[in-house]
Amino acid sequence: MAPLEFQHIERQSHSKFALVEKNDDGDKIVFSAQQVRLYVYFDKNLRRMQKRIGYTPIGYHSFASEFNKEDLPYKFAYWDHASFHEPTITNLNTQSPPMSIFGIEEWECFAPNKAVRPGYKEVLSTEYGELCSMALDQARGATRGRRKAEVRKQEKKNAAAAAEHKKTGTLHFHSGPKNAGSSSRS
């Protein structure tokens, strides 16, 4: 399912959402993709358990109440503390919002489960360390090789200059006669 366009929530980037309505201070309330992901999972747990879970993600009620204003079949369930009796869970008769409507991919969030960006492979941290070490060794070898080539080039240049000096008695890199063009003083 493609991500939906919302009236009360705007997507500011791949990893950031904001409520359209500003708070009392005139600031936008911003939510990370990880928070929205957590809200979706919290909603599912709340519906499954239908009792207090022992935690509520920060900002859940603000996000849920704004999202629930959308004209969608999906609604977030949340505790309604306005009742005179025991608080009740609202919106249990609606569908839980799927992550796909927000366009959030697992790899865009810090996730406790395995979440690997498409096109990448998961490696153990020890293997990753070994790969980094191998890459560093290869880079050092390439740098050493480049330095050796530069030294050999300079040695050849020096040898050619020494041979020229021995042959002509000068350190200049020209093939003209010795000290050509120099003026003599009287």
UniProtKB/TrEMBL annotation:
Region of interest called Disordered, as start-end residue ranges on this chain: 142-186
Ranges of Basic and acidic residues composition bias in the record: 151-167
Name this protein carries in UniProt: Uncharacterized protein
